[in-house]
Write a structure and sequence with these properties.
By secondary structure, the protein is of the alpha+beta class. The protein has six helices and seven strands. The strands form two sheets. It has a five-stranded mixed β-sheet with strand order 2-3-4-5-6. Strands 1-7 form a two-stranded antiparallel ribbon. Strand 4 (71-84) and strand 5 form a beta hairpin.
Amino acid sequence: MLSEHVDSTRLDELARKGVGLAFALPAVDFARLSACTYGTDMGQTGSGQDLADPGELAANIQFDIGPDGFPRVGLTVTGRLSLQCQRCLEPVTWPVRIETRLSVLDSDEQTEVIENPFDSVLISADGLDLATVIEDEILAALPMVPVHRDNPKCRQASGEDSNWEIDAELTHRPFTDLASLVGSRKSDADD
């Protein structure tokens, strides 16, 4: 079902019946998500080194009718992804836990009549592309800057263990003496 678009008639039927689906989601099956994971499209492929498993997620979809009368897609995604640490550039395992319920609308105007317009998705003329909806939700939940949380080697590689007080003193501050210069010119003008 993920590989096909669900048209509005089929979506209404699934929602009325309260159909639920469960399946595995290998990260490599999603182009945009795969590009974010370690060991796939990040330059590590073909290098002859052991690549990290980009991750596999488990997904549950539950169709129902929302309080506003529109079909809804309830989505739960759990698992782990291998991302690239932005400090040490090594893989970091990132836990994924997404729970959302999206109202499926036919037009932008319908967002005005539902309780929470931000939890909605528009169905196109081709139907609802569930794979794209799922991938969008996963991508929105990823950290902007993935880093190891408690890895001392990672902090040392980034220089985070350096003495920041000394670094702060060495920072050039061109306007530090501006107040004294303005004050001295003012007193010269008063003479």
